[in-house]
User: What shape does this take?
Amino acid sequence: MAKRISLTEASRRAPRLLSRGDSKLLDEGAPPTLSDLAGALQFALGDGRIWLNEDRMVLLQTSSLGQLRREMIEAMGIDQTRRIFRCVGWYQGIHLADVIAKRFQQQDLTAALAAGPRIHTMEGFVKVTTRRFEFDVSRNHYHGEFYWHDSTEAVEHLTHFGVCDCPVCWMLIGVPSGYTTRLFGYPVIFREMECTGMGAERCVIIGRNAEAWGDDVPELEEFGLTEPRVKGKPWTPPVELPKPVEDGVSMIQGRSAAIMRARRLIERVSGSDEPVMLLGEPGTGKELFARRLHEIGRHPGGPFIAVNCSMFDNDDAPAAIARLDAQIDRAAGGTLFLNDVLSLSRPLQGHLALRLQAREGARAGFRIVSACSGQPREAVKSGAFRADLFYRLSLLPVALPPLRERRDDLPMLIEHFLQRHARRHGRPLRKISGAAMDLLLRYDYPGNVRELSNMLERGVIFAEPAGELEISHLFSGLEELPEFIERAHASGSIVRSTSDGKVEGRTLQQMEIDAYTSALAAAKGNVSAAARDLGLSRAQLDYRLRKLGLKTGTEARPDAIRA
Assistant: This one.
């Protein structure tokens, strides 16, 4: 006879199968813990960046936020300031929900919702205590109760304006609304029932699905949720599958100031047929920009002829000139792209200069785009490159930034290449482990975008079936890794990792061994429990224990491990 179990026990054993949840049924220490979240926060010291997974963060004094709040209230009034601050918090909550989805691939909606107060606390704005929350996706029902202690917003408001007759934690109240709505898939609105800014001992926060608040829900309009609402579907955890993407070679990914400047210059010169010279290190995407210029230029329907100028090195002068002429003739009515133009021999430079001079009056026929990775002016000064040819080709120079100078584009580029290579090789889109993502955000990429693409393609191919992309899958061992990586530990300290793979005097393998043995000790030898604490499956932990020689069969060293 099948053993009967209670609903509570069933929810503990198979939470992902239920559309209902209750924080009281969630095991303490369910991932992601504060330690897990702290591991997602990285201080790239000397680089001017702080990363929370893929999101760039900043350190800002609470007094500065308080001064901003005061200036806005005095300039536009309390109602308008409240609306703006709540909207800022709303979008912050959405981004935090995305961090949980991307970094931890949480399979349990209850655990994902429980992570919200933890990550909100980690940000330093307020300490959150969860009293209880419950939900039923099939009925679009959510109810949650929380305490906030030491709210920075309340403190700053009291400093500048004294005790208020209304709640004042405006930005903070927007965060759980955005976070919960993003994960729950249906509008959930949080409100302050008591506030420290009103003289209360602590802030009391209530969250409910929108209908539970009645007809007066101005937050829906503020957050852009006034569209007709439909009955929500049962929540499903995020599934990493390749999304259809434009795989066109001319897609230029990025939104950093450096790459946006290059894109604007390309757009400005697209309306003419004057020569363009693309300058940049190897792998910065010069051919990509040349193709983009061709597509938005005056002759997008014409041919795009890409010529690698080093291809003529083994030819004698007459043969090389004949081959170059053939390529130029093929480009009629389109674009001729001369890649690595500095590698042209002197006879070819002279011939190309004559051809360009001869077509001065017929420039509208096709456009010449050249590219070089070296220093063209140095080549001109040394006599290695003809000055007259250089000035003809460089009428419109466009400099392309190296990847290390556009680090803000890394999350977007990583996502783009992961999707592209997963589709190309017919493999499921895999998650990048936290440690690997941190290193990708810090690496200098001497090979620029091409190197990043190669690393991610390597990871897609090398990763274990249904496993994460780890550092060993992405980095081949030939790369020069960053001098150090700074991470936040759960204790609040900063941990430094040096380029030789040591962290505070230990190698990465030693750290991995220490992490597994500590987790097993805390779980009293229970491998399944240790795997949960580490954010791994039982099978993954078994594999790693055997790989490190910590486990053979059912035994482990130095202590026996109980299954």
About this structure: Residues 1-18, 228-249, 499-506, 552-563 have pLDDT under 50 and may be disordered. The chain has four domains: 20-222, 241-246+406-485, 257-400, 505-563. Residues 241-246+406-485 form a domain with the Helicase, Ruva Protein; domain 3 fold (CATH 1.10.8.60).
